[in-house]
Amino acid sequence: MVTQSGKPVPDAARRSEKSRRAIYEAALALVAEAGYPKTTIEGIAARAGVGKQTIYRWWGSKADVLLEAFLDLSEQAAEAAGQVPYAIPDTGDLAADLKAVLRATVDELLDPRFEAPSRALAAEGLVNEQLAREFVAKLLEPQLQLYVDRLRSAQDAGDVRADVDPRIALELFVSPLAQRWLQHTGPISYEYTDTVVDYALHGLAPRS
Amino acid sequence: MVTQSGKPVPDAARRSEKSRRAIYEAALALVAEAGYPKTTIEGIAARAGVGKQTIYRWWGSKADVLLEAFLDLSEQAAEAAGQVPYAIPDTGDLAADLKAVLRATVDELLDPRFEAPSRALAAEGLVNEQLAREFVAKLLEPQLQLYVDRLRSAQDAGDVRADVDPRIALELFVSPLAQRWLQHTGPISYEYTDTVVDYALHGLAPRS
């Protein structure tokens, strides 16, 4: 293992990295198996094979551990899909760019490693507003802001109307996929998200 | 109390109606307070002041009780809002009709009687696919089909493009509100749902 600067990583750092990763995996596995309320710092420590104090040294609460474990999981999924983490491409073709990102999101939502812990946390967020707001602020909203940036650039290019609020507009193509996943209201596929993007950009009413 | 035919209701029917309502209220209160997994037929019966057998005579499972309790709650909310239950108006003005129904949905989502049990059930549905599918089939999908009908009539009138799939199209204005409510990703208001309807009908791209 080498750092970005090319220097070898000292043993202590390597051990820390290994512990950090074991803690993430234990936290995600436990919340998937037992649910959020029954997941504890003690349980995460036991499963990760580290002392409780190791966790408390790095994180203030189990919500913090899970938040970082999710950020890490999302970054891994994005890297596996060949994407730069947390970037929406800007090729000049807005429809194509949005479709590519939503297809990657479909892959992530259908990935079994992602699904069980995500569902357990979303379920807790439904009845625990404080947790939900923390996850929105630290995880969801930063991702949504990337769509805001891409839509603003599309407004500059004349591809999106100037009077459209990008923060609301993005929900027309992001929320349908989210609701199908959250509530099992319909199947999820590339064809589906492609269609949603086309409808959102061109509207349901005829163009005269 | 009289029946629709105008005849007085016999005492036994009146007692049954009173029990049924007590069971609905107990079921909704328990799932809101304790969550779905800890809600039992025994608990509902005790809180409603009826025998367990009364519940088993009418319903096969706690999921069935909750499903009917929710249908009843939605009908009451629609009646309180002066709507015919489960109908989307067709005044010939598609935007106005959709905005009216979504404003009523905003009221329902913000109604405290509705919010706690709905959240508890949606949370369970996230991790319990069988329950989710039952609720979608019996409760959510019939409501969404009303939008399908309204969009088909708009297609006949030339207000929605003929090549649009109504079952997907409705998600452009239904899902953003659903996601904000489910994930606390943003505030809910009439102004918000009105904006979403306008964006969905006219699209984000400029009309040339």
UniProtKB/TrEMBL annotation, chains A, B:
Q: Give the keywords, sorted.
A: DNA-binding, Transcription, Transcription regulation
List the InterPro entries.
Homeodomain-like_sf, HTH-type_TetR-like_transc_reg, HTH_TetR, Tet_transcr_reg_TetR-rel_C_sf, TetR_C
Keyword Isomerase found: no
Q: Which domain of life is it from?
A: Bacteria
What are the recorded GO MF terms, alphabetically? DNA-binding transcription factor activity; transcription cis-regulatory region binding
Q: Which residues bind DNA?
A: 40-59
The HTH tetR-type domain sits at 17-77
Q: Which PANTHER family match?
A: HTH-TYPE TRANSCRIPTIONAL REGULATOR RUTR, TETR-FAMILY TRANSCRIPTIONAL REGULATOR
Q: What is this protein called?
A: TetR family transcriptional regulator
At the highest ranks, the source species' classification is: Bacteria, Bacillati, Actinomycetota, Actinomycetes, Kitasatosporales
